[in-house]
Automatic annotation (TrEMBL):
Biological classification of the source: Eukaryota, Metazoa, Ecdysozoa, Arthropoda, Hexapoda
Domain PiggyBac transposable element-derived protein: residue ranges: 82-230
InterPro entries hit by this protein: PGBD
Protein known as: PiggyBac transposable element-derived protein domain-containing protein
Region feature Disordered, mapped onto this chain: 1-50
Pfam family, one: DDE_Tnp_1_7
UniProt feature coiled coil, ranges: none
PANTHER family reported in the protein's UniProt record: DDE_TNP_1_7 DOMAIN-CONTAINING PROTEIN, PIGGYBAC TRANSPOSABLE ELEMENT-DERIVED PROTEIN 3-LIKE
Compositional bias (Acidic residues): 7-20, 34-43
Length: 237
């Protein structure tokens, strides 16, 4: 039966009062003298590092980067341009519908001043709106200002035309809007309903891969709206 170790760890230590001093590279501990050790201890720390530190040699390890083979790479979907993924959801049918409703609303407001919006011009307008989120200027007129001009927006469309499209942008016919606001069956998203239905159908038509990650974002809003969602944080016990 093995004996139990002693509770006093100091009994296992050496009785020698000499401290262990590591040797430098290329030196022999057996030939070093006490006088040399004492002289080195008296030197400042900066002199020790000035003499150089030990150099270590690292061994190269080869790592195999399988599991991808030529067959696996062929199965991977091809990465397209950002405009390609935008067009997957904003189809030509959806853009044509927005153009139709926008021109209709402009004629309803003032029949003598039609907007005459085309799909190509709407695509430029949407492109400027997306790009404006990158600089993040506080007011849209600053993108056309001489001091803070952004060429990606100012060279694509005039400020006056951009404001006209923004003012008349519509997705549904206002004449079909229920007049009774207290109606229980009244759709709160009536003005966006055709746009949301078309966009939701485009999402459903996309082929889902085996591994899919869906992210979400919460936008802070303090205005008056019945569509607000609240993030309730439970109190800790």
């Amino acid at each position: 039966m093995a004996s139990l170790p002693s509770d006093n760890e100091d009994e296992n230590l050496s009785d020698s009062d000499d401290d262990y001093v590591p040797s430098k590279p290329g030196s022999d501990n057996s030939t070093s003298s006490d006088s040399e050790d004492d002289s080195e201890d008296d030197q400042p720390l900066s002199n020790f590092f000035a003499k150089g530190t030990p150099k270590y040699q690292w061994n190269k390890v080869s790592v195999s980067l399988a599991p991808y083979t030529s067959q696996n790479l062929d199965d991977e979907p091809e990465i397209g341009r950002p405009i390609h993924y935008f067009q997957l959801f904003f189809s030509d049918e959806l853009l044509d519908q927005i153009v139709e409703q926008t021109n209709l609303y402009a004629c309803q407001v003032d029949p003598n001043r039609p907007l005459n919006l085309a799909r190509s011009e709407l695509e430029v307008f949407l492109g400027t709106v997306v790009y404006m989120s990158i600089p993040g200027l506080p007011r849209h007129r600053l993108y056309w200002s001489s001091a803070t001009r952004v060429s990606q927006a100012a060279d694509s469309m005039s400020r006056k035309r951009w404001e006209q499209i923004k003012k008349n942008l519509h997705f549904n016919n206002n004449e079909n809007l229920p007049k009774d606001r207290n109606d229980v069956n009244r759709d709160k998203l009536f003005k966006l309903r055709p746009f949301l239905d078309n966009l939701q159908q485009n999402f459903a038509n996309q082929v889902k891969p085996e591994k899919l990650c869906v992210d979400e974002q919460t936008v802070p809003f303090k205005g008056r709206s019945s569509l607000k969602q609240y993030n309730i944080i439970p109190k800790t016990q």
